[in-house]
Amino acid sequence: MAVIDQAIESWVQRWRQRLDWPLRLCWGVGGGAPTRCWDLGVFEQPRVVITVRDAAAIPALLRPTLDSLGEAYVEGRLDVEGDIDDVLELAHTLVRRAAEDGAGAPQPTLLQRMVKGFTHSRKLDREAIQYHYDVSNAFYAEWLDPAMVYSCAYFERGDEDLASAQIKKIDHILTKIRLQPGQTLLDIGCGWGALVLRAAQRFGARCVGITLSQAQYELARERVAAAGLSDRIEIRLQDYRDVEGTFDRITSVGMFEHVGLKHLADYFRIIRARLAPDGWAMNHGITTTDPGDGETPYGGGRFIDKYVFPHGELPHIATVLRTMQEGGLEPFDVENLRRHYARTLQCWSATFEAKRERLRAMVPERIWRIWRVYLAGCAWAFEHDQIALFQVLCRPAGRSAQELPWSRRWIYDAAPGG
What we know:
alpha/beta; Rossmann fold; 17 helices; seven-stranded mixed beta sheet; 45% helix; single chain; Nonspecific Lipid-transfer Protein, Chain A; 17% strand; four-stranded mixed beta sheet; 2 domains; 418 residues
């Protein structure tokens, strides 16, 4: 204990000199009331209270990174009290200053990032998707919009509520791909079916939606049947690599993050092979802002990979455009919706916090902690340009330029149905 006491005292003294912050650190190993607390600033009430529940959390404090602090919290070695936005602000302040002092953990090497790219297979991708999405449909329904759209919304004016912004996002995509009545649409990674339902109901399309999540598959099929659209929409539990046939339009929303950097060109080749010669496709996905396709800084990417999206990899938009061209597709329109995803995640996180005790009772404590820090952390990362979200509209390469619209006006025209 003497060594631990000395380590904590040293940590407190170091940060008191560098951090004028209303933070209280407490020692409460064993789950009981704290036996001792230290204040790192002058204040009446702390904005954040960190309670050490396990001595194994000490290294995370001494060499703080987003993944080490996140792991200590998720595994119950640390308890944290305070507004989640204050907690994130404190965490980023600690890890940034620790990195400046050389006290943070090193970033992964190029070799480590290259080796990671070999981990993708049908089996591993299916397991990764099911790990993330099969938590429970009821859990997701508590903090998503009523349509359960689990991707970046589109705030056309900026004052929309989340449900309206999610419908506008779907319409924005379907209008961009110029979807017409009677056309066939493949939605890769269809989630709980919101996009294909909208495409059939409002745009008159015939749709196939595919997912690797058993929970999503079952609920999406129920929703299609309840809407009376089983004759126009087919939901499949299927890998994108196993789809056959051609489609007039293809959408992929929030899915290609699971493909892997080394497989992006093949992924786009498959989309090209499934796309009609005069078709249009839309890839809507998260990207890193590191031109070298690196992880988000300070260990945020490592935390996501370990706890949230196993085997996920984010390319830079330059890599997306290059591999899209390698896959036989011509990028036609590129739109950055980073600001929109920051707002979306802020809405999700706010709802999660408002319902946190109800959600806590629905899933194991560890899962609850993962999703709590993940939603708030991603909102912070999008807000501060550590990650971005791009919609890339594309079509088969090599087609005549005379077939292309002269302007982008059609993207912002009213969609069919008014």
